[in-house]
Amino acid sequence: MKVSVFNMAGKEVNSIDLPASIFEAKINRDLMHQALVRQLANARLGTHKAKGRSEVSRTGAKAYRQKGTGNARHGSKRAPIFVGGGVAHGPLPRKYTKQMPRKMRRAALRSALSAKAVNEQIVLVDDLSLDAPKTRDMKAIVNALVADGSALVLLPGRDENVEKSSKNLADVKTLHANYLNIRDLLGYDKIVMPLAALDVISNFLGDDDSLAEVEETGEEE
Known about the structure:
Blueprint: E1 2-6, E2 12-17, H1 20-23, H2 29-42, H3 102-118, E3 122-125, H4 135-145, E4 151-155, H5 160-166, E5 172-176, H6 182-187, E6 190-194, H7 195-205, H8 207-217
Parallel strand pairs: 1-3, 3-6, 4-5, 4-6
Antiparallel strand pairs: 1-2
Helix pairs in contact: 2-3, 4-5
């Protein structure tokens, strides 16, 4: 798939072919959904906790005498039916962690990148850099590259000037290319990607292809 390469002013300066193994992969919606659910579940802390009747701070004395009042029999104000009593079957701390094989996670990323490429939502830039942190300059660059909607800017490595310049832009997020994840891919309208970041993605998403060849042939280089 051939796509245009722009400069920071939004002018086309070149065109390149995207790696077919990454940007022309089979689009598997179910796999992307599974990867997204896994990531959201793993982000949950699971620290929710409600106190049961044995944990609330109330008297353990009998509320009133057993007989003669006309009311139901009660032995403690800690019972869940009373205000201030314990919670019946309340939430307890637990782990929401889900497991997913690495090959499936990377296949989901390829699927998401392929979907973005098919919908022309990937914007390649020859270079992305700023001399100093400046929100106004970063906004001008994003507006030149992305007409409307939100943008995920992938960086090949740490760039404090670009990262700091993007923090005050509500619809822009910077992310290191080696931290690429399904939630951010699906959560933004456009993916702005310098050529150096494309190389990083090609390096780690292209590994599974070589592993598959090794498994099929049973030989390693």
